[in-house]
Amino acid sequence: MTNKLMMLIALFFSIGIMAQDKLHITGKITGIPNEAKLTLENNFKKVVFQLKDGVLDVEMELTVVPTLVFMMVEHEGKQKYTTFFVGNEAIVLNGSIEDFPNNIKAENSKYDELRYQEHLLTKELNDKIEILSAEARTMIEEGAIRDSVYKMYMNNVEPLGKITKIIREIEQKSADFIKDNINTDYGRYSLRYCLSQFTPEEIREIAPLIDPKYKNTEEVRFVYSIADSNTLEEGDKYYDFIAKDINQKQVRFSDYFKGKYVLLDFSTLHCGYCQEAAPKTAQIADNLKDKLVHITYYAGHDQKDKFKYYSEFKGNKGILLSNKEGRLSPVLAMYRNNSTPDYWLFNLDGKLVMRFEGMQGEDFEEQLRALMK
Question: pTM above 0.85?
Fold first, then answer.
C-alpha cells in the first residue's frame, strides 16, 4: 500500500515536471541566412534569435494562451513575417522563407489547425490581391495618375475597386468561418479582429451561438457588449463607463461632463500614428481647455509602466484612463473602436458632435473650434 502511494506521488510530480510551460519551437526553415535577425513576439514580449543553417530551436513563455505569435525575419533592410495560433506547447515548423506569411502550419499544435484552414479558405483570393497590387504598381511606375489607379483598385464606394471587391469577399468568408467555429479558441480569439465586418444585428445572432461555459471569458464579454449596444451616431448620448485614472483611482466617464465639451480619444503607445499625434492633440486640447476636456482612453493592456510613460509622452496634459482588459475592454466594444487614434467629440449635453477616425491633419484645432461654436 505504501509503495503504491509512493508511486502515485512520484507520478504526480513527474507529470508536473513534464508539463509544457513554454512555447518551444523546433524544425527547419530554409532560405534564411545565418546572419539574419529573427524575432518571436507576443503581447509585447520579444525573443531575438538567429538560426544555424535554418535549424529552429527557440522558446518563449506565453502569459495568455492560446494566442497569436509573430515570427519576424530581418535581413539587409527587408522583413518577412509569419504567424501562428499556439499555446505553451512543443511545435514543429518546417518549410521555406518563401512560405511566409501563412503557408506554414505549426505541426503538433493543439490550436493552429483552424488558423491554417482559414488561410487555405482565402488563399486563392489573397493571391489575386497580390497580382492586382503588382498591376497597380506597374501602372503608376509607367506614368498613370495615382488617384485614378487608386480609384480603379481600392475604391470603397460603388463602383468598388478591383482589390476592394476581393477584400470584401475575403472578409465575408472569414466572418462565416469564425461564426461556424465560434465555440473554439481560435473562433473566439479571431472574432474581435473582424467585428467591423458584422452589423450589430449579426452580432446579436452570433451571441446566442456561444456556449454558456465561455460567457465569463474576456472575448465573449466583449461580444455581448456589442450585442447590447448600438453604434453611436451624431446626436446620440455617450456610453458611460468606469475606468482607472493615472493614479489608479476608479472614475466614471460621466464625471467629466461639467459645462464643457469632451474630446474622448482612443490611443495606445504601440501605435506609431498615436505616438506622432499624441503630443499635438494634447497641445491642441490645452489651447482649448477653457471649452474642452480632453480624455485619452488607453486602448492597450493596463501595464502601469506603459500607462505612465504614455502620460509623460503627452506632456502630462489631459486625462488618461484605462482598464485591465486592454483591447478586449467592453468600452472599446461599445464605441466600436478597432483602430487608433480615434477621436469622439461630445457637446455640453453629452451628445456626439463628430467622430474623427485616424490621425488628423494640421487643421484639427480649427475643426474643433468651429464645431464648438
Answer: no
